[in-house]
DNA sequence: AATGCGGGGTA
DNA sequence: TACCCAGCATT
């Protein structure tokens, strides 16, 4: 005997546990479904409800909407975000009135998708929910259900992955009961198969969910990959006095290594050289840089380029704290003897750099 | 094939 | 704070 399909299990669950009282589910005409679908793009149900009620009160049908001013429409959208949705909605209403006698081309999904603001998933949702014809949706809920049910790895933002998700969503979609199925799979994603703390024990398809069977539910769908860390390179001055001490500066409280002591650092070698010439004219800068040091922060990669300079002792040189960086907050500096490590906080990569330096 | 759009809810 | 939300249009 053939076991129950995904759709059959889902539909019987929906019959008892599904949401049936959302405003747009009452009298689901194409117009009412359309407005709800546009509002619900990237916006949660709880947020939409009040906006939807007010919108329907003011624009009860497509002709009212088409003849309204854009300003009126946008006013009803204020606070919802993604305002191009409202402009497209308004424009779409005018197109439908002018070109389609005020009716959606429900028999032609491609024609639906050609309308402003209506993409593949919204077109399918309008068709299925308002006319009960079979059409495949793939919104955030369905993506999550599909990723888990088939244990699909990969971020759906990638084109190839996205195509696979559409294919799997298509496979799950039954030939009949299009409206109920469409609402059911969204309800599953919204109420049980949630992004966090999904209630798998209540799930009507848990017995065949690969993600659950493989204990991967919490890792699916795969998150958007963190983009590669940008690399920043900065030039650090190793100013060596009498082959004994190095110049350190205390960093500003804000930014990386805030408050720690560190080598003076600059955006470019030229900037470093200019500062050195002005501050320690007697210093001699080596032309060959030292070996670069790499360091990784949470949000970028830092390439440390050290340059060594030598300073012969001149009695009377200012030993006390001095200021630098005229445009920045005053910063103190000190001479540091690496052979007698003082009680100052050095960033790890700088400490490592100094350990490798011959004075 | 990747980005911008936007405000709100949630852990 | 970071992530996610009934995605689409644009580049």
Can you summarize this structure?
The protein has 359 residues and is an alpha+beta fold. It has helices at residues 6-17, 30-39, 45-58, 62-67, 70-77, 84-100, 109-113, 120-131, 140-149, 159-172, 178-192, 210-213, 269-279, 348-355, and strands spanning 231-241, 245-250, 261-262, 265-266, 284-285, 293-296, 301-311, 333-336.
General description of the model:
- The chain is an alpha+beta fold and 359 residues long.
- Helices cover 41% and strands 12% of the residues.
- The protein is built from 14 helices and 8 strands.
- The protein has helices spanning 6-17, 30-39, 45-58, 62-67, 70-77, 84-100, 109-113, 120-131, 140-149, 159-172, 178-192, 210-213, 269-279, 348-355; strands at 231-241, 245-250, 261-262, 265-266, 284-285, 293-296, 301-311, 333-336.
- Helix 2 (30-39) packs antiparallel against helix 8.
- The relative contact order is 0.09.
- The structure holds a DNA duplex (11 and 11 nucleotides).
Got a strand count? 8
Q: Give the fraction of residues assigned to helices.
A: 40-55%
Low-pLDDT residue intervals, each spanning 5 or more residues: 319-330
Q: What count of domains describes the coordinates?
A: 2
Radius of gyration: 32 Å
Distance between the termini: 83 Å
Query: What is the H-and-E element order?
Result: HHHHHHHHHHHHEEEEHEEEEH
CATH superfamily of the largest domain: Hypothetical protein, domain 2
Share of β-strand residues: 5-15%
Outline, from the CA principal axes? Answer: elongated
What is the CATH domain class of the largest domain?
Answer: Mainly Alpha
Largest sheet: 8 strands, mixed
At CATH level 2, the architecture of the largest domain is: Orthogonal Bundle
Family: Belongs to the Nth/MutY family.
Protein name: Adenine DNA glycosylase
Catalytic activity: Hydrolyzes free adenine bases from 7,8-dihydro-8-oxoguanine:adenine mismatched double-stranded DNA, leaving an apurinic site
InterPro entries: A/G_AdeGlyc_MutY (IPR005760), DNA_glycosylase (IPR011257), Endonuclease3_FeS-loop_motif (IPR003651), HhH-GPD_domain (IPR003265), HhH_base_excis_C (IPR023170), MIG/MutY (IPR044298), MutY_C (IPR029119), NUDIX_hydrolase-like_dom_sf (IPR015797)
């Amino acid at each position: 005997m053939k076991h129950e399909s995904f759709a059959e299990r889902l539909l019987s669950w929906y019959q008892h546990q599904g949401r049936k009282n959302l405003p747009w589910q009452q009298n689901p005409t194409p117009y009412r479904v359309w407005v709800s679908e546009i509002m619900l793009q990237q916006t949660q149900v709880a947020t939409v409800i009040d906006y939807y009620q007010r919108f329907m009160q003011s624009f009860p049908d497509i002709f009212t909407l088409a003849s309204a001013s854009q300003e009126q429409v946008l006013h009803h959208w204020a606070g919802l975000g993604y305002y191009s949705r409202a402009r497209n909605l308004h424009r779409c209403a005018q197109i439908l009135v002018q070109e389609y006698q005020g009716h959606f081309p429900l028999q032609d999904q491609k024609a639906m998708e050609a309308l402003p603001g209506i993409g593949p998933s919204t077109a399918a949702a309008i068709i299925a929910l308002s006319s009960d014809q079979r059409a495949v949706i793939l919104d955030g809920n369905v993506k999550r259900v599909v990723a888990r049910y088939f244990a699909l790895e990969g971020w759906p933002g990638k084109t190839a992955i996205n195509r696979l998700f559409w294919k799997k969503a298509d496979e799950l979609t039954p030939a009949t009961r299009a409206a109920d199925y469409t609402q059911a799979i969204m309800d599953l994603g919204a109420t049980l198969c949630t992004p966090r703390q999904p209630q798998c024990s209540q799930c009507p398809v848990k017995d065949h969910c690969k993600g659950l069977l493989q204990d991967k539910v919490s890792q699916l769908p795969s998150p958007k990959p963190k983009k590669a860390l940008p690399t920043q390179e900065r030039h650090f001055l190793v100013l060596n006095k009498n082959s004994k001490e190095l110049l350190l500066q205390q960093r500003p409280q804000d930014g990386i290594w805030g408050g720690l002591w560190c080598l003076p650092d600059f955006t470019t070698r030229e900037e470093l050289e200019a500062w050195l010439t002005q501050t320690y004219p007697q210093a001699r800068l080596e032309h060959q840089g030292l070996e670069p040091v790499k360091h990784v922060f949470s949000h970028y990669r830092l390439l440390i380029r050290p340059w060594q300079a030598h300073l012969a002792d001149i009695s009377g040189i200012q030993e006390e704290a001095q200021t630098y960086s005229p445009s920045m907050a005053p910063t103190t500096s000190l001479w540091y003897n690496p052979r007698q490590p003082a009680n100052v906080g050095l960033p790890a990569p700088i400490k490592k750099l100094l350990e490798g330096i011959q004075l």
